[in-house]
């Protein structure tokens, strides 16, 4: 009996036939990376392989690394394994990784969302026998509203604050979420200011050709009074800090899928919570899994136990796989 195409080890998801790992959390010789968030793209690996669009952000965050790139859909032979990367829709350059050995196909999804946000490469279903899926929002309560509706809510909040002489400070993860929000808002309402972590990422993505509206980097010498009615986009960790207090009278909000839960909104202590997530909601998870045609499902990071039980009740062969990946907004925003 041959080894499984992918195995779950203390270093991460391993492919014995190609002797590589997918998003490993311990240092390895060869790491295939789904996307640039810190829980998936970690330092210390000897060699990295990722999509062309993912590499610049990885280099920005990890420094001098040995990284090789592939195009979406390009087949790469590694040992006895055939590997290809397919759009995950999570953030620019994010990918699902398809691995085939002797006709058996596995897909490691990384993080994904199935709704096209108009900014990053849209999710592409990949047929397989085994599917490794996140379930960050793997409960029926998580169902996202149409993006245009949420954009209208954000713009209305910002315009009202501007009319009343307040700054609008919006907390969002610096890679992916912040840039998606920039494409959703009405830049005609007022100036858009950005925290350094957000602006540095903006610069990397602009250099790659991703279209973003004009923004103003908040530097130590910036005078907030020169930008009345501004929208300020910053990592959640900056809200309520000395950095944020420079803007004087302000209203604060968070953009996250967790805003769907009232208890989380209360603990965040913001004035508003906007439900914007770069992960699949419950219907999205079901849609993605069904589209793969896979009978064997491996649930990682999220509501894994509940999600796996539901899948088994629906006729899948599902199991929980412990990993060291995080969920939405679990990472630091120092990059």
Quick synopsis:
The chain is of the alpha/beta class and 335 residues long. The chain has helices spanning 55-62, 147-163, 177-184, 196-207, 242-245, 262-268, 282-292, 304-313; strands at 7-8, 13-15, 20-22, 30-32, 47-51, 67-70, 76-78, 81-87, 95-101, 104-108, 130-135, 167-171, 192-194, 216-217, 231-234, 250-255, 272-274, 296-302, 317-320.
Topology:
Layout lengths: L6 E2 L4 E3 L4 E3 L7 E3 L14 E5 L3 H8 L4 E4 L5 E3 L2 E7 L7 E7 L2 E5 L21 E6 L11 H17 L3 E5 L5 H8 L7 E3 L1 H12 L8 E2 L13 E4 L7 H4 L4 E6 L6 H7 L3 E3 L7 H11 L3 E7 L1 H10 L3 E4 L15
Parallel strand pairs: 3-4, 4-5, 5-6, 10-11, 11-18, 12-15, 12-16, 13-14, 13-15, 16-17, 18-19
Antiparallel strand pairs: 1-2, 2-3, 7-8, 8-9, 9-10
Task: Note the main attributes of this structure.
single chain, 335 residues, alpha/beta, seven-stranded mixed beta sheet, six-stranded mixed beta sheet, 24% strand
Order of helices and strands: EEEEEHEEEEEEHEHEHEEHEHEHEHE
**Average pLDDT score:** 94
Uncertain residue segments:
330-335
- Range of strand content: 15-25%
What is the strand arrangement across the widest sheet? 7-8-9-10-11-18-19
Radius of gyration, CA atoms, in whole angstroms: 20 Å
Q: How many helices in DSSP terms?
A: 8
Number of strands: 19
* Class by alpha and beta content: alpha/beta
Oligomerization = single chain
Helix content: 10-25%
């Amino acid at each position: 009996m041959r080894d499984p195409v992918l195995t779950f080890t203390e270093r991460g998801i391993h492919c014995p036939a190609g002797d590589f790992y997918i998003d490993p959390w311990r240092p390895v010789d060869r790491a295939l990376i789904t996307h640039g968030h810190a829980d998936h793209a970690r330092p210390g690996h000897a060699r990295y392989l990722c999509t062309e669009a993912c590499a610049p952000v990885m280099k920005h965050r990890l420094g001098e690394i040995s990284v090789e790139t592939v195009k979406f859909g390009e087949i790469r032979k590694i040992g006895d394994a055939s590997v290809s990367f397919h759009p995950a829709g999570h953030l620019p350059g994010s990918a699902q990784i398809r691995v085939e050995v002797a006709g058996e196909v596995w897909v490691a999804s990384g993080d994904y969302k199935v709704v096209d946000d108009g900014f990053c490469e849209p999710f592409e279903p990949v047929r397989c026998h085994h599917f490794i899926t996140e379930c960050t929002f793997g409960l029926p309560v998580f169902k996202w509203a149409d993006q245009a509706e949420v954009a209208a809510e954000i713009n209305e909040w910002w315009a009202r604050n501007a009319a009343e002489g307040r700054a609008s400070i919006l907390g969002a993860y610096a890679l992916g979420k912040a840039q998606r929000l920039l494409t959703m808002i009405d830049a005609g309402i007022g100036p858009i200011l950005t925290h350094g972590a957000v602006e540095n990422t903006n610069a990397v993505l602009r250099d790659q050709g991703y279209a973003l509206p004009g923004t103003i980097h908040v530097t130590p010498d910036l005078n907030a009074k020169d930008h009345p009615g501004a929208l300020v986009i910053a990592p959640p960790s900056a809200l309520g800090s000395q950095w944020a207090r420079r803007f004087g009278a302000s209203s604060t909000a968070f953009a996250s899928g967790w805003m769907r839960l009232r208890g989380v909104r209360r603990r965040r202590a913001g004035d508003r919570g906007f439900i914007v997530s770069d992960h699949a909601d419950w219907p999205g998870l079901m849609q993605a899994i069904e589209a793969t045609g896979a009978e064997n499902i491996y649930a990682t990071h999220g509501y894994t136990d509940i999600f796996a039980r539901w899948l088994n009740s629906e006729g899948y062969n599902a199991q929980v796989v412990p990993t060291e990946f995080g969920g939405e907004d679990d990472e630091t925003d120092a990059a």
